[in-house]
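Quick one, tokens below. Sequence please?
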């Protein structure tokens, strides 16, 4: 079952252009996710740099009182590559990238600036720029939140033997959670996204500005659709 089938709602005519223009956000973000993780983990050297950068970040946050300490806390991990096309695999990769976002920025920056060859520097430059774009940060957080809500339902639907009553219950509860996220979770979601953008000096678009499609939009067409809409 596709996520869009769960969160489907009536589309007003004036919304169609905005939704159509953004139809490539998720596929592009998933493509960039795979590219970023593959480049950042391409060698044992890069993996060691990731762990070192994360260790420095964790130590700094502990010293500043931003993280709890104790057994099992703040373990140094690594980026998880996408293993297959299932949502669970993408969720693991997205979660690992968000957890190691700062460390990944450091590694990609080092490769793009000081890579051993022109080819390595060029290969790292594009994913580095994508990682530090508002569109990617926004979409990455959006996918994580939606996938976490739909995770149990997706796991249930992948089982060969189905418990119909349980599946119906999961569909109902998942739909309610997605509706709550859409109706009342937007402000908290934006705060989270803006926090990451602020930490990395990523330009944040004005959400109240008028939305203008990148192409295919008539200049005489005056829909009052904002970026935040």
């Amino acid at each position: 079952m596709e996520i869009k089938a769960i969160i489907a709602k009536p589309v007003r005519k004036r919304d169609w252009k905005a939704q159509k223009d953004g139809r490539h956000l998720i596929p592009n973000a998933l493509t960039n996710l795979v590219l970023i993780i593959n480049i950042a983990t391409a060698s044992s050297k890069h993996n060691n740099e990731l762990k070192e950068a994360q260790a420095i970040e964790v130590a700094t946050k502990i010293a500043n009182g931003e993280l709890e300490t104790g057994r099992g806390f703040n373990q140094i991990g690594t980026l998880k590559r996408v293993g297959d096309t299932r949502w669970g695999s993408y969720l693991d990769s997205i979660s690992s990238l968000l957890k190691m976002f700062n460390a990944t920025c450091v590694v990609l920056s080092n490769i793009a600036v000081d890579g051993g060859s022109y080819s390595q520097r060029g290969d790292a430059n594009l994913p580095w720029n994508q990682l530090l774009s508002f569109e990617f940060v926004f979409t990455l957080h959006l996918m994580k939140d939606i996938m976490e809500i739909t995770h149990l339902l997706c796991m249930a639907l992948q089982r060969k033997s189905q418990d119909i009553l349980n599946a119906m219950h999961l569909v109902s509860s998942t739909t309610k959670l997605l509706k709550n996220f859409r109706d009342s979770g937007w402000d908290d979601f934006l705060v989270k996204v803006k926090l990451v953008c602020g930490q990395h000096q990523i330009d944040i678009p004005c959400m109240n500005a008028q939305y203008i499609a990148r192409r295919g939009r008539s200049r005489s067409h005056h829909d009052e659709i904002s970026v935040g809409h």
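Residues 21-199 form one domain. The chain is about 65% helix and 0% strand.
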